[in-house]
Amino acid sequence: MTESEGCRVFVVEDEFLVALQIEDDLIAAGYVVVGPYTTLQGSIIASRQQKFEVATLDLNLRGEFVYPLVDELIERGVPVLLLTGYTAADLPERFRALPRLAKPFDGPELIRQVESLLAAR
Amino acid sequence: MCSAEALPKNLSSKIGTLDSPDLRAVLDALPMAVYATDPEGIITYFNQAAADLAGREPWLGKDRWCISWELRRADGSILPHDECPMVQTLKEGRAIRGHGIVSVRPDGTMVPILPCSTPIFDKSGMMTGAINLLVDISERNGSETILDAEAERTAVLDPVVSRSGEVHAATAIDDADSPLASQHEAERRLRAERDSQYLAAIVESSDDAIISKDLNGIISSWNNGAERLFGYAADEVIGKPVTILIPPGHEDEEPHILDRIRNGVRIDHYETKRRRKDGSLVDISLTVSPVRDATGRIIGASKIARNITEQKQAEQTMQARLREQASLYHLTEKLHRANGTEEIYDAALDAIRAALNCSRASILLFDQSNTMRFVAWRGLSERYRHAVDGHSPWTPDARDPDPIFVEDVTRADFSDELRATIASEGIAALGFIPLITGGRLIGKFMAYYDRPHAFSETEISLALTIARQLGFSIQRIRAERARQLAEEQLRRNEANERARAAELQAIMEAVPTPIWITRTPDCRVIDGNRSAYELLHLPPGSNLSFSAPPDERPSGFQIFSAGRTLSADELPVQRAAGGEEVENFEEEIRFDDGRSRHLLGNATPLRNALGELTGAVAAFIDITERKQTEEALRESERRLKMALDAGRMGAWEWNLQSGRVIWSPGLAVLHHLEPGACEGTLADFERDIHPADLPAVEQAIERALASREDYHVAYRMRLPDGTIRWMEAIGRFSPSDGPAGARLAGICMDITERKEAEAQRDLLVAELSHRVKNTLATVNSIARQSFSTNPDARDAQRSFDARIRALAQAHTRLAEARWSGVSLETIFSDELAPYRSENNISLDGPPTTLPPKHALTLGMAAHELATNAAKHGALSVKAGRVSVDWAVDPSENRLCIRWCETGGPPVSPPSRNGFGRLLLERVLASDLGGDVRLEFASQGLSCTIDVPYLRGAQ
Fold first, then answer.
1. Is there a contact between B774 and A103 if contact means CB atoms under 8 Å apart?
2. Which CATH number fits domain B1-207: 3.30.450.20, 3.30.300.20, 3.30.428.10, 3.30.70.2570?
3. Is A17 close to B781, i.e. CB distance below 8 A?
4. I want to staple B181 with a disulfide (CB 3.0 to 4.6 A). Which of B21, B185, B421, B574 is the partner?
5. Which residues in chain B have their CB less than 8 angstroms from residue A86's CB?
């Protein structure tokens, strides 16, 4: 837990209630939440301004797919965790290997995934 | 050999009038051709021997210079009469011992003669004419006829000669007894003198030695000829025995001769040798005749000795000339009769050897490669022929080349090798004589000599003559052969034509298709082949012409085309007989019993060699079955097309052999091309394929070709207008068992709609998954909020249930509207429905459709507001009222909703932020970007929700 102390997690989720839960879980685990951001454009701008170590991204932001942001973050070497209701087959080929957490998920699972991403960093 | 000698001038008898019958009898009987002319050369006399020699009766007073039909020189050339020795004699007044010439008889036979012409002068010295002795110098054969004739006359001649002997004697007596002459006697003697002069002239003019002797062999007369021949003058020998002339070894001849003479037997042309005065021997021909006195008693002999030494040489030369001449005539004759080149070559080789006096000869001709090749030869070894094969002094294009005569090979300008080759064959001299026909050199003939040989003018001339004859004959044979070949070809062609005509007739009968033929332009009669009669159910041989008189016309059927009966003139045979080529004519024969046959065929005019119309022929095939099949096929194609059109499909066929791709019109339409605009190659097809899909298509084709299994591939196609269509192609491989070769054929369909539907479905499934899972995540979150914020578990449970129900209610409404949206009024009305009583709730605003997200979020907000009002606010008391009104600001694209509670219990701000407030304030702000203002006024809660709203936005 100490490792995660102060670690900043960039959260993109347009469903407020879901974002609320993510936020609760991360904060409870000692992370600092950056966000949550609910639009593609807003999240891209914020991602360039904010400092964070890892990102959890919802795929579908009110009909817009978050892919441009995923590409940018991968480019920048930021570990990305996809949070989505889509199956792997629905994803573009290049994102199918990314760590993914299917909705609905529970808090411990989310924290475990974030931790492993940070550990592999 | 030529010598001229003037006769004694005192001979004055007039030759033209031989008025002494005796003398005439003597001349007539003389075994020697004699004729006389006047000074102009006109023939005035000839004896029988002359006529025999000439082979004709000379025309007295008309013929001039010569009695022969024709004269030739020794070389065979014509000697004109006005160039004969007689002409010279008359012109120059001297005797001529002519060269050997040839007298040609009208029958073509020839006699070599030696003319001896002598002028005759009268007493005044005027030349009154000339006499010509023609000495027959032919060899035995040639002279036989004359000698035979002579023998017949011997009986006549002998007494004449005896009288001539008497004349001699008489002359002597006359000289002695002149005083006894009376007038009559004087006339007789004058005549006798003339005659004796004349005879003396003849005797003197003779080139032969004429000697008379008595029975003891004592010489009694001796003429100039004898003096010339034997070298003795008359006075040296008269009175001496004739034996002085006889050389050793011939001693027994004289007694033998005398013996015969005594017996009255004449000796003709006895060839022997005599000795001259100088001792040299001379070849002579001796003719000895007995001389009788007036009583017939033999008193002596008259002998004519002819020097035949030169004659013998001349004879040999003449014989050679004759042989040459004969060979030439022989050649001409043989060439004219020759039927083939072999005969020509044989005749020519014979003639060459005879005429050119060579033992060996050959003929060479240019072959097709213009190489000189031996075609015939005599006496040449194979080795020699092989060695000189192809050798020619001239090229084939030589113009009028001269013959080449090599008199001595050792001095010839030959290569050493050639000279050695020629020498080893034993050839010492040779001649190359070109063969020319039509101005073109075709070859040569060769004459070979074992010893060096000087070619005489005669030989050269003969060689050229033979060459002309040979060349002409070869050309004639060649032309003849060409003509025969052409004739043979023609015969063969005719035979072929006949055979072909028979074949055609047989074929016509045998072919299973009907044929009509008419042999007149008016088509009065039309015949058919077996098939035609069978087709029409008519007896063979019946007239098939509708142009025939009514009672001859065929019946039982009518001919239709394009749906109507054809008149006779419209029928194909009739049209063709009018000169028209009728092609691909389709007709239907409708029989009276209702059956019908469809025919397709051509009719063509028949013409004779002049191009005039002589009839027509038509051949048809029965296409009834084909028509039916075609109809069935058309129907099948129509159905297929309908199916393809309905399914947005097209058919294609790719011939692997030709590479051609055939598209159905439907496929062209799918490619947005005009039907038929496809150029028919695989490239056309590949051009429209989306580049990203092309590899997959090519791979599928390769796989189908390799495995011979069905071809199945889906790909995108980019149309010329840029739109993308999805296509699915299914094909099957057809092996090359037919003439068309291996093919891949199949259909192509536009599956864009299906693909789009599939994509839509996939999208929907994904969206559904996304929404369901989001909803579940939301439910999860609601549960956590509900239970974590409410210490009362039962209350929390109820709140949670109610919230889930509210969420489900919004979902239900959305589902009812197929997620197109729900009216704002419905959302609020649904949430407030459990608390509605008379007039406690008012909803007021324009019809406003909420998109799903708005509906769900506002639904939850409405639930929280309604629950709160029911628990703590206006709806918790009977008098409380809730009014909801809303407005849309189109310029700002915002929706403003106002929730206003009145008549409820006094309101105080909540002590803690429950889930309802959290949801209202933060969820609306976050999820809808809205602005929510809660006012806890004492008269009741009011809530203003201001959210972005695009009218019609989903």
1. yes
2. 3.30.450.20
3. yes
4. B185
5. 766, 769-770
